[in-house]
Amino acid sequence: MPTPRYRSILPLSLMAPTFYPADHGIVQPKGQAPLIQLQDPDLQARAQRLVNVLYWTANTYKDHDGMADSDTLKVFIVPEFYFRKASAEEVRRGGFVPGTSFGSYPEESRYALAEALYDAIHQSALFNDWTIVAGTICSAMTPRPDGRLNLLNTAIMLRGRRPVMDDSVPYVLMEKHYISNIDGPDPHSHANLDPTTTYSFRLNPDQHLDNLIYWDGMSLGLEVCLDHCMQVVKNAVSVIRQSLGPDSINLDLQLVTSCGMSIVDQAVAVRDGALVMLTDGMSYAGNHFPEPIFQVGRYNARTGRVDVNDPDNFLFTELPGESSYQILQYAQGRYVELGRRQGVWVSNDRLPMFIV
Questions:
Q1: Chain centre distance of CA 206
Q2: Quick one: CA dihedral 18, 22, 24, 25, positive or negative?
Q3: Structural domain that includes position 60
């Protein structure tokens, strides 16, 4: 097995609510962030906001433990649905309108967004030794003649600069496999259930192997929300071990971007003593709108459980209170009115990649 390039990890997470449709707001480049240019003004605004947040984070925490250490991997996770379009009617109603594409952009927007985000972080030394899970983007394929709606929910994972880049891809687009009942659309609208699409389970029965990523001498597992509960990464690891032997793969890190999920012990597939990170965007319990959660834990093979770090082990800094950084109209603005925060979590200290 290859030796991981990094000895420690500095976990970072964006706390932002993403469940309800929200207007994209007026967003301008801030700080050192470059201007993002995308054809869709809604997607451009949301992409610009995330890039603003990333540059703000890198500068705000520039003196934090591990931030300048080339042997520490900075892992920044954004919640699921961060890139989800919303019409004025959906914002007013507080829900996505049935019969629409449920906040989706055109399918090709996934690649345009990934390229724009990658260009924005790769041009700056601020993101040396970073890995960024940029949440997910909802998109829809061109409607079929019979009117069938084929939807996608795609996680984007990117690498910042490295002293020496290996031969692995610079970023990954990874499809969510299961639509939750709370996501909005009929689960049968998922593109991988249509046998005529390139995303079909029939054409690509082992597509869950796409959740395994190899770079920086590491084996990583990436999941989106319900996929974690359905043990997609764990099943992929099992398939490889059945084919190549029990020692053929040992995951060094497992990452989950979600909107309504927490770490599930039975779904963890990392080696003993390795880390699991989950960032959530859920905030819709009644009228209380709780702040979304961030979890980091270490897997204990003896107990079969993840020992989740105490929240006191993390530092939280609130983002500037303007739409270039925060989603101000979430739930018709109720989230902000109730004094709920949006900002960035960071571990108080860098964490060893493994504890034996």
A1: 22
A2: negative
A3: 8-352
Q: Percent of the chain beyond pLDDT 90?
A: 75
Rounded to whole angstroms, the Cα distance separating 246 from 248 reads: 6
Does pLDDT of 190 surpass 90? no
Instruction: Give the CA radius of gyration of the chain.
Output: 19
Q: What is the pLDDT of residue 286?
A: 65
Structural contact between residues 263 and 296, judged by C-beta atoms closer than 8 angstroms: no
* Counted domains in the chain: 1
Residue 82 lies inside a defined structural domain of this protein: yes
Question: Do the Cβ atoms of 292 and 16 come closer than 8 Å?
Answer: yes
Parallel, antiparallel or unpaired: strands 130-140 and 8-15? unpaired
- The CATH number assigned to the domain holding 282 equals 3.60.110
Q: Is residue 169 part of a domain?
A: yes
Q: Among 265, 267, 277, which residue's Cα sits nearest to residue 302? A: 265
User: What is the number of residues in the chain?
Assistant: 356
Q: Where are the alpha helices (DSSP H) in the chain?
A: 41-60, 88-93, 109-122, 226-229, 232-244, 334-337
The C-alpha atoms of residue 220 and residue 64 are separated, in whole angstroms, by 25
Residue 88 inside a domain? The answer is: yes
pLDDT, one tens digit per residue, over 258-275 is 999 999 999 999 999 999
Asked if the structure places residue 2 within a domain, the reply is no
Q: Which of 156, 153, 124 is nearest to 54 (CA)?
A: 124
pTM: 0.96
Residue 183: per-residue pLDDT:
66
Encode pLDDT of 82-129 as tens digits: 999 998 888 888 888 776 788 899 999 999 999 999 999 999 999 999
- DSSP class per residue in 297-328: EEEETTTTEEEEPPGGGEEEEEPPSSTTTS-T
Digit-coded pLDDT (tens) for 132-148: 999 999 999 988 888 78
Q: 235: exposed, middle or buried (C-beta count within 10 Å: 0-12, 13-18, 19+)?
A: middle
Mean per-residue pLDDT over the chain, rounded: 93
**Are 131 and 159 within 8 A, CB to CB?**
yes
